[in-house]
Each structure stands twice: as C-alpha cells, then as structure tokens.
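Dear support,

Our group has been running a series of protein-ligand predictions, and this particular one with zinc ion is the one our PI (initials K.S.) wants archived with full inputs and outputs. We had some confusion internally about which version of the output was final, so please treat the block below as the authoritative record. The input we submitted was:
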Amino acid sequence: MTNLQQIRDDVLSISISALVVDAPLVQDIQEHLAKIGFIDLSGVTLGVLSTETEAAIHKFQNIAGVNSTNITASFAKKLIDITTPKITPPPPAAITITLTGSVGAGGVNNPADVLAIKNRLADLGFQVSRNSIIDADTIKAIKLFQAIINEKDTLDIGGNVDGRVDVNGKTHKILEKSTAPRWQEMLSGSIPEGFLNNDDLQGDNGDFGTNWIVETVQAAALIYKDEYLRTHPNAALIATNDISKISGGKFPPHASHQVGMCCDIRLPRKDGASGGITYQDSEYDRAAMRAMLEAFRKQSKHRIRRIFFNDMTLIAAGLCQTASGHDNHAHIDILAP
Ligand SMILES: [Ca+2]
Ligand SMILES: [Ca+2]
Ligand SMILES: [Zn+2]
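Confirmed final output from the archive:
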C-alpha cells in the first residue's frame, strides 16, 4: 500500500504494470488526476487500473515531462503540486476606509489607519500582516497596488507610485472599491478549462498576479477550448508559466513580470505537451499557437496591452510583435480595466 505522497517523499519508483495489485495507489492517482480533469471519476472504478486510467496517466506524464514506464517521485511531486488547492481572495465588497492621516512611506501612520489599510490589502490577497506596523512588506504592498492601478511595469518610485496612501487620494479611493484588484496565485487549470498551470509542474513559485491576469487566461482558455480543442482534442492545453513573485517586484531574469499584469505562455508541441522548443522547431504546433493567441485577442474580460512572440507568421497575422528573448514563449500583457 503506497500513495503519491510516499512515492514523492521516499523517492520510490513503481512500475505502472505493477499498479494492478495496488488499488489504494491507483485510487490516489485517479483522485488526483480527476482534480485536473484528466479522468472522470464517475466513469471509472476506483482502484482499478482501467484503460482510461492508464491513458490518463500517460497523458499527464507527457504534459508534465515525466515519461517513464514507472510512477516516479517526480511524477508524484508534479501531480501533488498542481492539484494542491490555491487560496484565492473572494471578490471584495465596496467599503469605506476612514483615514485620519496618510499611511505608508513618510506617512502620518496613525495605528488605526495603518490597521485599516493593511486589513483591506490582506483581504485583497496582498502579502501583509493584519497589524498596525509599517514595515518594508507594507510599503512594498502599497507600491505594488499603486503600480497595478497606474499601469506601471515596476515598483520604482514615480508616476503615482510612492508607497503611501494619501487621504482621499487615488490609492485610497480604489482600495475602497469592489473592483479593487486582488492578488492571487494562478489557478491550476484543467482539461475542461483549456489551460494548465505549468509553473506548478516546474516546482516554481513565479505564478502570482492580479485576478485580472488570471481572469484573462481563464476567458482565453475557454475560447481556445471551444474553437480549437474541441476539433483538435490531442492539441496542447494553454500552458501558463511565469507571472510574478509572491510579493511582486524584481523577478530576474525578466525585465518586467513585477506587477502581476503579464503571463508567459509556453509553446504548444505537436505531441500535446508544451515548451522546450522555439517557433522554428519542427515540433512546434503553429496552428494551436495561432488559436491560443486569437483566443487572447478575442476574450473580452480584460484589454490586451501587447503580446511579444517572434513567430513571423503570427506577427504577419497581427497577433503578436517581435521582442528579443521571445523565440520560445509568448508574453502577454494586459491593461487595467
Ligand atoms: Ca516558471
Ligand atoms: Ca504555483
Ligand atoms: Zn514574459
């Protein structure tokens, strides 16, 4: 009797053909694969290594880049990582935040005011503690919020980014709104949703951003599913990669990716996986990529600011523009509503 967690933690490797005598492990794998829509639990017998179950295992192996005749520790880690539930802040209500003075860098910082601002930022998913202390994290979170609402690419001071909430200023007013931007981890995605979070499959933590970029990916992926995956069921899902770090700010080697308003997309491969290629590679699935970028252009959830990707055919189609370093992925930027 084994489960995925043991396989990961004890670095085990178990032959897929040996799964027929390990019903609890088969069930654990089935339940995890179901969370990302690789298998429909109502259509399989739990614990039985059916043809569908084996096909779903192979599909996940291919997409996660862990092809093997065995269930490996890497397979287990990737499947656990991508199916771990994400904490997402719920849509906020509009509130009135009464301030007696400014809050943040060089502010008056009355404790009750600081607490009110930090509570609101925390409710919106930003990385601050619920207390009345002004620390570096608080100022960074205020700058991040300001950079988002002012469409800045960095947290550098200037152009309405100063790390301080002024009484009745733009930052204060937008913090109060029900439409205030939230900060969250990119969702896992699934086959029915048309996308998968590849950053999770890499064991990275570069997939934090605004609810706006998450909503853009979700909307585009549904269009891609309806308009392309339905007729090309073996084509790659949209594979999201870097957005921003958990608190935003500098994210080397990226020049941007600081404010959660852009997302990198890996190149679809003809074998249904993604990445590890450039647009010049014979494995590159241009038709799928075209459909993905068309879906981003077509979705109406948020406005696309620009898409960087060097495939001349798709540039000629008006879908993207050239930028150095973008032979092996597309970079999608959005605008604030
Ligand atoms: Ca990554
Ligand atoms: Ca993640
Ligand atoms: Zn990028």
